[in-house]
Fold:
Amino acid sequence: MLGAPTSAVAASDVVLVSADGTAYGTELSGSVFTDIANMVPGDSQTGSFYVRNAGENPGFLRIVLKDVSVSDDDLADALTIAADTASQEGEATPVALAEPCWVLSEGEVVPPDTTARIDLTAAIGNLDGTRGQGAIAEASLGVSLSDTTPGSLSPSDCGGPDVSVSLTPVQPPGATVGAVVEQGPSQSGGLVPNEPDLPVLSVPEILGIDPNTWHLLEEYWVLLPVGAFFLGNLVYFLIVRRRRPEDETEQLV
Structure:
């Protein structure tokens, strides 16, 4: 195993980061993606931040995806992150590869007292049915400037990041991110049709039936003709029995 990359300058504040390219510090407040919790399959969103080389020597920029936590394997495969720099176009990488890390970009040279902009794209691929529904995802980036030759570390080697940048905000308990499948495929392969909006009736419940549910016990309607049949026979039987004594009296007279 190769050693970790050495910093271009020994000082701990060589790598400075900024959300707007103006105010720099050793930490990035907040997260790059602020609305990732509302993403659904097929969605994507972008974010960016800036890296400044505050040292005296140039350094190779290396960005790794790390600290990934996803509550569902389907979402981990469908959620991808890509990092673009001025000289390199990043490849969409499933967060599932980050075990424990995965390189998103490396090799761009950042001279002393200059900055590099990193453009990030998060996307969720297609998920069938309710796969990944209600899942939670968190991730961050490790950013470093080093004099180690690009490619000398394996893609899954975290190396020695100088700065950690949060990709996702800390999720409150019960929050979801992505894969909130509101309408999945039906058994026939098509989409489940939306039910039309029905009017709300101000009618009290009768016989336990709520008209606003529009569930009027249709399954019992089949009993109506059966009940009518028996009721008709009963009425006929009573009429016949009543008329027989009258007929016999008339015959005797």
In short: The radius of gyration is 35 Å. Confidence is low (pLDDT under 50) at residues 1-12, 173-198.
